[in-house]
Design goal:
The structure is a homodimer. Chain A is of the alpha/beta class. Chain A has two domains: about 140 residues, Aspartate Aminotransferase, domain 1 (Alpha-Beta Complex); about 240 residues, Type I PLP-dependent aspartate aminotransferase-like (Major domain) (Aspartate Aminotransferase, domain 2), CATH 3.40.640.10. Chain A is built from 14 helices and 13 strands. Chain A has a seven-stranded mixed β-sheet with strand order 2-8-7-6-5-3-4, sandwiched between helices. Chain A has a four-stranded antiparallel β-sheet with strand order 9-10-13-12. In chain A, α7 links the parallel β3 and β4. In chain A, α4 packs antiparallel against α11 and α6 packs across α10. The longest helix of chain A is centred in the last third of the chain and has 21 residues. At the A-B interface, α1, α2, α4, α6 and α7 of A face α1, α2, α4, α6 and α7 of B.
Chain lengths: ~425, ~425
């Protein structure tokens, strides 16, 4: 052996390195509708009208005070805001929770760039690489993306449409908890199932978090969208003695039909968490300044704003459920809240059926776009015969859409036989 | 040994776990001016006027087309935009680079939430936990924050005010490259030094990246702010044959005095990089919608917009340099671009002097706020006698500010003797 060989080997190794991409990037999933988008574009080019029941973009008119906040913006300099948000917005957000009886002060509110950044900050505050977050499956696909971006991992707690996506028992969930588990993340009302966690389920989550020293991260962005009097919403902020564990994610996007404002927030009574959120927030400087003024205007509206909107979504849900129930072979879980529904279709591959709808079907110049269910499961092969349907269009369109599905399914099954 | 003991030990361990915060959060630095902010607030409460030369928030009037874009917003629904940005904005950004002779197409442009998100996406696309990014020191403190958030690490390439912050030689920089190094990140014109990388320095960086298989990430947000005819700006986009290595970070914040819009972009000809950026972008849904319309209006302005602004910054720089040169014991590096200057003061602890300025000094009801230089160094004890001065105020205020510094320094030295 020559004494210089190891060094030479190192030098060769170093100089033969090639550009590589991060492994984390590979772990971030593509959007479940990604592959369908070109087909939808082609259909539109052919002149086909598409009912978009595939995305959570409501057609509800954005409230006038929000639009007016943009239209009346008149500063000489469009300056940075404070990193944690404009003080008056932090106050109005705290006031919103206070109206629901939660004792939140403005310093426990950090304004974020949408609910997305709030989720990202929450995960970043509690996870290091290799750490695990439990989420009941099916779940919002982007939770995986945010975890992957920080080299953490979403571990699914399985549930299925067959038993109404019931949350497994304490002991069943405990089996998924490892030394790397740092938090349980849930969303109520839930995207994609429309489930609202009841008090007993909330207690199960709380007991698990207390027993194993876990954070509970609650995504409550659909809080106002609950359609039945017997369904009781329990906020994470209403669990006494649980303050150190609780991290709340929120957003104006759906609440005020202001998705494009990109304003959300993170709320926690845990000072350590909020100190880290503060540091993360400082690094990215601030949320959009005018969007914060618009969000402030939204939060200052009278809560009666929600009544007609809730009524409208309830009508939409009812029309959708009624329409789907008429279709032979469709299993569905009646959503209690949010504006999504998971349905099992009488097909082996729902993604292929979604493609069929866009590429090979139309009736009266119209078709429907749905989201394949598999994208909401990380367990392989789960949800392959399911779709998520977002009831974000007016009732007449939903009625037409379910009728189109009713016509399309037998045609698809005939051609795929 | 009892057979059940290991399991019992595991059970006890699991149930005795406490809530912990992420280590990544601990690695994110606090802002260099963080500790000074309460002192500034106190001074204001006492009625003292503060010249804020501590932050890069220009007082330049935001162009009318930008403000008008907010004021004329009038959609029924404030909806999500496409994740990579509104097509017309991607086109106008590509057009901006084309005017500089760079062959950029809209699909090579991803719109981001400010330059901050662009940096974050660039690092996320190329780094995994433990990976290293080289940055010439002193540098923008938030680079450390973004790296820490993804468990990567900024490795400083030292330079010092004594030799004009000259970039070390190829061989000197090569010593800092390890198997974990994934990229070199630089900014030109530079925050905090005002340095503009010349062609020879750009070639040094390019050769290193080609030799060792590294990405070169260029932050060009201050591109228009160059004050001397003899200083030639070389964009990363103008290095032929280097396309696969090059990742450009950009923003409207300083360029169009639109910091609060939170619109930036990432530009790369490397398809793999852009595919990951696309996935990251989809996870966070979209940049602010109306801000994108405002940015589009900005990019469509006639480039003559920059002439008076550049002239104004040049005057400010000249007044600042002239004022500082009159102060005994001050060493400074004349900035070629951007709107920052690093100066060495005749004090042992510049942070303590910054505190003195806010807490114990005023003249005619006025004082100055500066940023302690140490915050721009990650090497311990470096930059302790330096400050960063942002020349973001009009010339009369800068003249007053340097005069205040001239008066404050002897007083401080007397009291701290």
């Amino acid at each position: 052996m020559h004494g210089s060989e190891p060094l030479k080997g190192y030098k060769d190794f170093m100089e033969q390195r090639r550009l590589t991409l991060s492994a984390r990037g590979g772990e971030v999933p593509l959007s479940p509708i990604r592959k369908l988008t070109p087909l939808a574009d082609d259909a539109k080019t052919r002149g086909t009208e598409i009912y978009h029941l595939n995305i959570g973009q409501p057609d509800i008119r954005t409230p006038k005070p929000v639009i007016d906040a943009y239209r009346s913006f008149n500063a000489e300099v469009l300056a940075y805001s404070p990193s944690l948000g404009i003080p008056q917005l932090r106050e109005s957000i705290a006031g919103y929770y206070q109206r629901y009886g939660h004792d939140v002060s403005p310093r426990e509110v950090a304004v974020t760039v949408g609910g997305s950044e709030a989720i990202f900050f929450a995960l970043s505050a509690v996870c290091d690489p290799g750490d695990e977050i439990l989420v009941r499956e099916p779940f919002y696909a982007n939770y995986i993306a945010f975890a992957a971006m920080i080299s953490a991992k979403v571990v699914p707690i399985p549930s299925s449409i067959g038993n109404g996506f019931a949350l497994p028992s304490h002991d069943e969930i405990a089996r998924y908890i490892t030394p790397r588990t740092k938090a349980i993340l849930y969303i109520s009302p839930e995207n994609p199932t429309g489930i609202v966690y009841d008090r007993a389920e909330m207690e199960t989550l709380r007991e698990l978090c207390e027993r194993f020293g876990l954070y509970l991260i609650a995504d409550e962005v659909y809080r106002e969208f609950i359609y039945d009097d017997h369904v009781q919403f329990t906020s994470i902020l209403s669990l006494p003695g649980f303050e150190q564990h609780a991290i709340l994610i929120d957003s104006v996007s759906k609440r005020f039909s202001s998705c494009g404002a990109r304003i959300g927030c993170i709320v926690s009574f845990n000072r350590g968490v909020m100190e880290l959120v503060d540091k993360f927030a400082q690094a990215r400087l601030c949320p959009p300044t005018v969007g914060q003024l618009a969000a402030d205007a939204a939060y200052r509206m009278d809560p009666s704003y929600f009544t007609p909107i809730r009524d409208e979504y309830k009508r939409r849900r009812d029309v959708l459920v009624e329409g789907l129930r008429k279709i032979p072979g469709v299993t569905l879980n009646v959503p209690e809240g949010a504006f999504y529904l998971m349905a099992r279709l009488p097909v082996a591959d729902a993604e292929d059926f979604c493609r069929f709808l866009l590429a090979d079907f139309e009736e009266g110049g119209k078709t429907v776009m749905l989201t394949p269910g598999a994208g909401f499961y990380s367990t392989p092969d789960k949800g392959r015969d399911e779709v998520r349907i977002a009831y974000v269009l007016e009732t007449e369109k939903i009625r037409s859409a379910t009728s189109l599905l009713e016509q399309a399914l037998p045609l698809y099954r005939k051609q795929s036989r």
